[in-house]
Design brief:
The complex is a heterodimer of chains A (272) and B (414). Chain A is mainly alpha-helical and 272 residues long. Chain A has one domain. Helices cover 71% and strands 1% of the residues of chain A. Chain A starts with a strand and ends with a helix. The model of chain A has no long low-confidence stretch (mean pLDDT 88). About 6% of the residues of chain B have low confidence. In chain B, the strands form four sheets. Chain B has a six-stranded mixed sheet, sandwiched between helices. A five-stranded mixed sheet of chain B has the order 12-18-17-14-15, with no helix packed on it. A four-stranded antiparallel sheet of chain B has the order 10-11-13-16, with no helix packed on it. Chain B is α/β, with parallel strands linked by helices and 414 residues long. The chains are: A mainly alpha (272), B alpha/beta (414). The interface between A and B is large, with 31 and 40 residues. Strand 1 of chain A pairs antiparallel with strand 4 of chain B, so a sheet runs across the interface.
Chain lengths: 272, 414
């Protein structure tokens, strides 16, 4: 293997063959995060079950019962849970990927590997939590007498992929920013909270006036959650154009995040 | 065989001051603080490496030595792609693994077994490779019994052993090592050096950065001496190491010709030097060795009266001690005849910590009058000795490292 080390110039292309060579490290990093997260097995799993369940109950009381937010004709708990299912995936991968560089600074300063593996691995890890909450979701559907459609179930991985890409894009951007400005980590939880309220998690997109809905769809998670509801709960006829829109927007997120990440990546060890 | 695997051309590396404060700038700043001088306006940038040209051939074991802040670690970091160069280029031909630290990425919650996989992967091994070498790694580390215990319950010795064991089984074509051999007990260090030598014999290239001259000598044939970001010397290990030891800013012996000698009305100083246990001048002193400051002088008349003080400062210009020879029973306070005299001041073993020191010697006549100061006349480095370490591998803070008595008693069984 022959290569050159030169001063960084302009936009560096991502070296996919290098990432492929380091695939074992990606695997091990994911495995490490899952291992550490569920090390105290009882707490880890119980948390993964109760967190979405409790949030659902609180939201159902607050927003469903008291605020009487519309839920497109389905019981509010199952309506909000569908949103939370994908939102939780998005928010935990975003939170973890934004922290991923800072929490691994000891490694970054001592060993070389494609840095993108760090935020990259953290968007895979929440999949375990997702599987657990998805099982609860199925139980919830059974309880409320919903029959999941085959198309809906088949498209879940696609929706998950869009969620993953959007959170990776945003996470790449925020993780590099987090190294430069250490106050980013304090703002982050607040930022994610705000993001949730501007995403149709606790309310349907339909409450937004029709001519402004396109603004909501600049957020890929809006499309993903709306699609999940119409596919799984049959809240409305499926708006298929949301799929390419959300996918497209998430790719834009990814490209912007990637560009910023690549720009700052080579200096991580110097500014840490 | 003499195909080059690393070729460095006109390599330069600039740091903006503030993002990485070089060792000597920090020291200057602290020194300024003590001198109550206005701090000088600093340049905003600092060149850690200036025009490095270097070619390393396949199978070479090359040592990089130099004082703190010389740029050794920066060079290694650029070679291992942790930080980019500012100018110049490096051509590398081969798979590189860098070992800038032992146990990089160890997770305390995970078990020894799990950390072998984690650390191995971080150092660049594939899962298949780790699986294949797993038993060897475990055997090398000598911690079989604790393999499934979380690493946070390990003693520091066990931790280091496990980390080394993983590192020692890296088999890249080019291995970059930074100072990692400074930890671990002597026996285990030897085992690791042996393992690395073995690596060298298989046609692999090793670049080894160290302060430990014994390790450099046993591992490397060729040595590069860096000083302030430049290559000061490049050549066979024996010559360069002795050049470094003589050169490294240490002045452990000083003689004056009669015309230039420091003097007062009663004495003329001919020479000052540090002498080790063998009674000979030395420039390698360890924390566990005693050494003496020897002052050789000539009295000018039969009425000469002379006294000495020694004042020692550390690298940050803190005063470590000052000492007076007024209680010695020999000639102090007595009229000395005209002749050649030698006064020695012995500094005990297990007293100073490792680090750089500078010694000022003052001499005076009757009643502390007629004072003359030889400011920072000797500078020297005290090397780390493993004697007091036991199972501890970290650094010792403080200017002294005394061998204090410790005791623990069981007072009552409950």
């Amino acid at each position: 293997m022959r290569y050159e080390i030169t001063p960084p110039k302009g936009l560096v292309n991502i070296n996919l063959s290098e990432i492929w060579r380091y695939r074992d490290l990606l695997y091990i990093l994911v495995w490490r995060d899952i291992k550490v997260r569920y090390k105290q097995t009882v707490v880890g799993v119980v948390w993964a079950i109760f967190q979405p369940l409790l949030t659902m109950i609180i939201f159902s009381v607050l927003f469903g019962r008291l605020a009487k937010l519309p839920s497109e004709g389905v019981p509010y708990p199952v309506f909000v849970y569908t949103g939370l299912l994908l939102w939780n995936y998005f928010s935990s991968s975003l939170a973890n990927s934004s922290e991923s560089l800072i929490s691994n600074d000891a490694i970054i300063k001592k060993v070389y590997f494609p840095r993108i593996l760090l935020p990259g691995s953290t968007v895979v890890t929440p999949a375990v939590d997702f599987v657990i909450s998805f099982i609860i979701f199925l139980a919830l559907m059974f309880y409320y007498h919903f029959t999941p459609s085959a198309v809906g179930l088949l498209l879940i991985p696609v929706l998950l992929l869009i969620t993953m890409i959007s959170s990776l894009g945003l996470g790449l951007f925020l993780s590099s920013l987090n190294i430069k400005y250490r106050d980013v980590r304090h703002i982050l939880p607040f930022f994610i909270q705000i993001l949730m309220y501007i995403t149709p998690v606790i309310y349907p997109v339909s409450i937004i006036p029709a001519n402004f809905q396109w603004i909501a769809y600049l957020n890929p998670m809006s499309g993903v959650i709306t699609l999940a509801r119409s596919l799984l709960l049959h809240t409305s006829s499926v708006d298929w154009k949301l799929l390419p829109i959300s996918f497209g927007v998430s790719l834009v997120f990814l490209l912007i995040g990637l560009a910023y990440f690549r720009k700052t990546e080579r200096f991580f060890a110097d500014i840490m | 065989m003499d195909q080059s695997v690393i070729k460095i051309e006109k390599l330069r590396k600039k740091y903006a001051i503030g993002t990485r404060v070089p060792y000597f700038a920090l020291r200057d700043q602290i020194a300024d603080l003590f001198k109550f001088k206005k701090p000088k306006k600093k340049n905003e940038e600092f060149w850690a490496l200036k025009d490095i040209n270097l070619e390393i051939k396949r199978g070479e074991a090359i040592g990089i030595i130099g004082r703190n802040g010389a740029g050794k670690s920066t060079l290694l970091k650029i070679l291992s792609q942790i930080t980019p160069p500012t100018e110049g280029k490096i051509m590398i031909d081969g798979r590189v693994a860098s070992l800038l630290e032992v146990g990089t990425g160890f997770n305390p919650e995970l078990t020894g077994r799990e950390n072998i996989y984690l650390n191995g992967a971080i150092l660049g091994m594939s899962r298949a490779e780790i699986k294949r070498k797993f038993d060897q790694i475990v055997a090398f580390s000598e911690i079989e019994k604790f393999l499934d215990t979380p690493v946070k319950r390990y003693s520091s010795g066990m931790y280091v052993r496990l980390a080394f064991a993983v590192a020692a089984h890296l088999e890249p074509e080019i291995l970059l090592i930074d100072e990692v051999l400074a930890v671990g007990d002597a026996q285990f260090q030897k085992k690791c050096l042996g393992k690395m030598n073995e690596v060298g014999k298989h046609g692999r290239t090793i670049v080894f950065v160290s302060h430990n001259m014994a390790a450099v000598k046993s591992l490397c044939k060729r040595v590069i001496l860096l000083e302030r970001g430049k290559i000061l010397a490049d050549g066979p290990v024996g010559r360069i190491v002795s050049k470094y030891l003589g050169y490294n800013g240490n002045i452990t012996k000083k003689n004056w010709s009669l015309g230039k000698a420091p003097e007062n009305s009663s004495v003329k100083i001919l020479g000052v030097s540090l002498v080790g246990g063998s009674g000979k001048n030395t420039n390698t002193i360890s924390t566990d060795e005693s050494f003496a400051v020897e002052i050789l002088y000539q009295t000018k008349s039969d009425e000469s009266v002379v006294g000495f003080t020694t004042v020692l400062h550390d690298a940050e210009n803190n005063c470590v001690f000052s000492s007076l020879n007024n209680r010695e029973s020999g000639w102090y306070g007595k009229k000395m005849p005209k002749g050649l005299f030698r006064t020695t001041c012995t500094i005990p073993a297990d007293f100073l910590n490792n680090g750089e020191f500078s010694l000022t010697i003052n001499f005076y006549g009757k009643n502390y009058s007629d004072l003359h100061s030889m400011s920072e006349v000797l500078t020297f480095e005290i090397n780390d000795s493993p004697k007091l370490r036991g199972d501890y591998f970290g650094g010792y803070s403080g200017v002294v490292r005394p061998d204090l008595k410790w005791a623990t008693q069981l007072i009552e069984n409950k």
